[in-house]
Design brief:
By secondary structure, the chain is α/β, with parallel strands linked by helices. It contains 14 helices and 16 strands. Helix content is 34%, strand content 19%. α12 links the parallel β11 and β12. The longest helix has 16 residues. The protein starts with a strand and ends with a strand.
Length: 426
């Protein structure tokens, strides 16, 4: 079985659209959280979010695409194009049918569907418990812009990227929130190992910030309350800290180019990293108000280590899923404690104190941060974590040299799905 290597990366986040901008933010602790402006958040407990700079429409291969795609899908399309270019695939002689694509992405903003609401209601007869589908079709065609249907599809990023980049191989779109991007990477690895593709573009595109998420997110202990006057929002997100109070949701996208090692060698491409092992597991749906360990999370970590044929003591650092969410961070710490037996745990870090939770793109963002760490040889600190809840877990609070060129990347969603990867220097 050929090795699976990473030959290209690209990211768009509130820090910017280049890898250099994002690496600087992670290493210097510069966050980019701004007041929510897409809707009136004045009555919400959450007033801030991680907002990407306006995407450059001039970089789109077809300017008409901007009229079709919503903001998140434009960001995702541009990021996928960047990753393809970084890997040199835009100039490579590769059979399009042997290039696959997997994406983790959800639908567009629910408010984009409001034009449907009245039409649906008019077609419902609650007393007769019937629905007039013929009337719905007629009224829809006569009253709603047909582009609205296209604009709300969750797989727009997949469709427009494959068309733009002439990707004709295996493909799929995943919608399991925080692990959606990680699942895209996992499925890409398995497709390469099974011989279904030679190259796979895999990534995640974060869904838009929605009003309904905000109040429920704070009550569940997932999102931080940022409504207080005079709050320093740059220091709100404190992963793994005893006094953490939630995270800040962010938009963005992150992509990797995965490739069979022998295929990359034939192209003369030097890999950025090797994916040595993968693990996934499930727990019951996660309740952010319940602070308990998640055996599935520790099992996915152990499976990734086993597939990579490495011992826990041979991991140089952990790029965790720590977001500042009260129960989620605690569950991860307990899982690490079980797998690494407490005091032997290698340095643990997370970029979410700076970028917030990029949801579907968060797992791939963590992989890119891990690649940077492997190349730089130094683990960036978890900013604003001054009082770790678990003193025996080595949460990095100042730049730390890595002892082994190997990383465990940990990721989990609130539905109980966890995906972990082991990365190595090639």
């Amino acid at each position: 079985m050929s090795d699976v290597v990473i030959t290209g990366v690209a990211i768009a986040s509130p820090a910017g659209y280049t890898l250099e901008e994002n690496v600087t933010a992670w290493r210097e602790g510069v966050s980019h959280f701004h007041p929510i402006s897409d809707f009136d958040a004045s009555c919400c407990p959450v007033r801030y979010a991680g907002i990407c700079p306006k995407p450059d429409a001039k970089k789109l291969p077809d300017r008409k695409v901007q009229k079709i795609l919503r903001r998140k899908d434009v960001i995702g399309l541009l990021t996928s194009i960047d990753a393809f270019h970084v890997a040199g695939l835009d100039k490579a002689d590769v059979d399009p049918a042997r290039i696959g694509m997997y994406v983790g992405a959800s639908s567009t903003r629910l408010s984009d569907l409001t034009s449907f609401h009245d039409i649906v209601a008019d077609c419902c007869d609650t007393l007769a418990q019937s629905y007039d589908s013929e009337k719905f079709g007629h009224d829809l065609m006569n009253n709603v812009n047909p582009l609205v249907v296209l604009q709300t599809l969750m797989n727009n990023g997949l469709c427009f990227s494959t068309m733009t980049l002439n990707i004709q191989g295996v493909n799929a779109n995943f919608m399991d929130y925080q692990v959606a991007g990680s699942r895209a990477v996992l499925e890409g690895v398995r497709s390469l190992q099974a011989g279904r593709a030679d190259v796979v573009l895999a990534g995640g595109v974060a869904g838009p910030v929605e009003p309904f998420q905000l109040k429920d997110g704070v009550e569940a202990g997932y999102l931080a309350d940022t409504s207080q006057s005079g709050i320093d929002v740059s220091k709100v997100v404190k992963p793994y800290d005893k006094d953490r109070c939630g995270t800040i949701i962010s938009e963005g996208a992150a992509y990797l180019v995965l490739e069979r090692g022998d295929h990359a060698a034939k192209r003369g491409v030097r890999p950025l990293a090797k994916i040595a092992g993968c693990g996934q597991a499930n727990d019951p749906a996660f309740d952010f108000l319940r602070e308990s360990c998640s055996p599935g999370w520790s099992r996915s970590m152990a499976t990734a280590l086993q597939e990579a044929k490495v011992k826990p003591s041979e991991i140089g650092f952990i790029l965790g899923g720590g977001s500042g969410a009260r129960a989620a961070d605690r569950a991860e710490m307990l899982a690490l404690q079980e797998v690494f037996e407490g005091d032997s745990c290698p340095p643990v870090t997370s970029p979410k104190s700076v970028v917030g939770d990029m949801n579907e793109a968060s797992g791939v963002t963590a992989i890119i941060a891990a690649i940077d760490t492997l190349q730089f040889g130094e683990v960036a600190p978890v900013f604003h974590c001054h009082n770790p809840e678990f003193p025996n877990i080595n949460v990095v609070r100042e730049p730390t040299k890595i002892k082994f060129p190997r990383a465990l990347v940990s990721n989990r969603n609130f539905m109980g799905n966890s995906i972990c990867l082991v990365l190595e220097t090639p």
